[in-house]
Amino acid sequence: MSPRVVLKKLPYMDTDVSVDRSRNDILKLLKGAGADGIQWSEIYKPIKTTELRFVKNNIGYSLKIPVDTSDIDSQRRNITPVRFDALLAKRERGLHRALFQYVQSLVKAHQWGLMKFEEAFAGHINVQLPSGERMTIAEAVIARKTGFVQLPEAQSQTSGEVT
After folding, report:
1. Which has the higher per-residue pLDDT, 32 or 140?
2. Domain definitions of the chain by residue range
3. What's this model's pTM, rounded to 2 decimal places?
């Protein structure tokens, strides 16, 4: 009998929906909302990250999703390579289904008129900083909070004057 493997309990971790189906469902949602240039990529350093990029109204968006497998990695010695691969595949399926639900909720909020598309996906808009570095708005805000990036100070307008 193999040792019991204890994993983080995450939503969608028991889904049987394949990664390909979830990606196709996301593609249909975004195309239906008018996005194009939709691309998937995988980044493996420092940790595996799945990235979804697309364009709508000449605005570029990036959703970067780190694949956290630390709970699986910590038990690698206790399980067979086949079981390890099966657990990684299960995590990928759940992650992609969660991403589908996330994108679907943002698209539906836009469709119902709760917010503009750009507002719904605001944190994922790509920007170029004065230094030339490119990142999403969310990454820039987080980096500024931790002191890694200098963003221009916000300016308020009163009576047409910038203060």
Report:
1. 32
2. 19-117
3. 0.81
